[in-house]
């Protein structure tokens, strides 16, 4: 009997080793080749400020041609002038378009087609336009759920829809969806916001299956709290519970976040995360998402259990924060 058990274990181990060796051989053949940004056309939605503008600057530093898309024309003009200071050659161009990308799919397609006629087909699309609402579910007006879904989700669908056919015809391209850590784990006060960011993950996974045979790679970025104008505005009305939970991680600079997102997108990585906690979340929430290397696959298998244990500690801490806030509010109401 012990001999039979040993035989089964040895056979299983041999099969695992054989699989890993085969994966090591095949993976380099199927991994995406890095995208060269020199001379490439990079289109960035939400590019007039925050992470979007920093991504545009990072790509411009690497020799790309840039199309910025946002609604506010004056901010776009300011961003254009700022980005142009980082040119590496005199051929580079920064073009901008003032348009609401969440309203009309056909109109967005028409406008983006005009941009491609000026700077050529889009090599990399970065969907960074987004907005946030913080509040308890029952206190959020129903129209806000519709607004967030339009901007954060459809505002990524429409530009992607406008460029995907040309990318498939050329058999190359990168598409980036800028989600959020609130798109990996639901957070108190983000019932409206988190849902829209989770939706991007589902879109990205399904779309990657469709476009990978055409040498097009999708990246979903999950930045943490980042020092942007949008974050500053949101912080003014953020719930106490949300603030206390957010304090568990530090605030990042948009330039740092942008460098990581651009690097991961160029390499064709599906997940793009920032910092140790972001990396842990990426492994914990990877599920059946694509991997770009054998190292990434092994890392997930090895650390999943360990990171799950740590995550349970954080979740328990978050629950404790919410309970303490509830007790304080109840005491305050009784005092009043």
From TrEMBL:
Top EC class for this record: oxidoreductase
Membrane in keyword set: yes
Enzyme Commission numbers on file: 1.1.1.102
Keywords assigned: Endoplasmic reticulum, Lipid metabolism, Membrane, NADP, Nucleotide-binding, Oxidoreductase, Sphingolipid metabolism, Transmembrane, Transmembrane helix
PROSITE patterns recorded: ADH_SHORT
Catalytic activity: sphinganine + NADP(+) = 3-oxosphinganine + NADPH + H(+)
Swiss-Prot/TrEMBL GO biological process terms: 3-keto-sphinganine metabolic process; sphingolipid biosynthetic process
CDD domains given in the database record: KDSR-like_SDR_c
One Pfam family of this chain: adh_short
Name of the protein described by the UniProt record: 3-dehydrosphinganine reductase
Originating organism: Anolis carolinensis (Green anole)
Gene designation: KDSR
């Amino acid at each position: 009997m012990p001999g039979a058990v040993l035989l089964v274990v040895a056979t299983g181990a041999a099969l695992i080793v054989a699989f890993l060796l085969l994966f090591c051989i095949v993976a380099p053949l199927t991994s995406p080749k890095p995208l060269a940004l020199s001379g490439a056309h990079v289109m960035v939605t939400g590019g007039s400020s925050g992470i979007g503008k920093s991504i545009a600057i990072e790509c411009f530093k690497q020799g790309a041609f840039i199309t910025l898309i946002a609604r506010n024309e004056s901010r776009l003009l300011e961003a254009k002038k700022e980005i142009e200071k980082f040119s590496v050659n005199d051929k580079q161009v920064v073009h901008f378009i003032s348009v609401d990308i969440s309203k009309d799919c056909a109109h967005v397609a028409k406008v983006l087609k005009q941009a491609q006629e000026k700077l050529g087909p889009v090599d990399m699309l970065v969907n960074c336009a987004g907005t946030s609402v913080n509040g308890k579910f029952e206190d959020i007006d129903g129209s806000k759920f519709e607004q967030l879904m339009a901007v954060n989700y459809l505002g990524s669908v429409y530009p992607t829809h406008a460029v995907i056919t040309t990318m498939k015809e050329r058999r190359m391209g990168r598409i980036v969806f800028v989600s959020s850590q609130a798109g990996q784990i639901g957070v108190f006060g983000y019932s409206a916001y988190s849902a829209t960011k989770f939706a991007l993950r589902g879109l990205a996974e399904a779309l990657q299956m469709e476009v990978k045979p055409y040498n097009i790679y999708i990246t979903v970025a999950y930045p943490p709290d980042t020092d942007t104008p949008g974050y500053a505005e949101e912080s003014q009305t953020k719930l106490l519970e949300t603030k206390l939970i957010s304090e568990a991680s530090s605030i990042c600079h948009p330039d740092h976040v942008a460098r990581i997102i651009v690097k991961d997108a160029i390499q064709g990585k599906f997940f793009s995360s920032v910092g140790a906690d972001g990396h842990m979340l990426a492994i914990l929430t990877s599920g059946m998402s694509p991997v770009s290397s054998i190292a990434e696959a092994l890392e997930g298998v090895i650390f999943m259990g360990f990171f799950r244990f740590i995550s349970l500690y954080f979740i328990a801490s978050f629950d404790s924060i919410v309970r303490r806030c509830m007790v304080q509010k109840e005491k305050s109401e009784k005092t009043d």
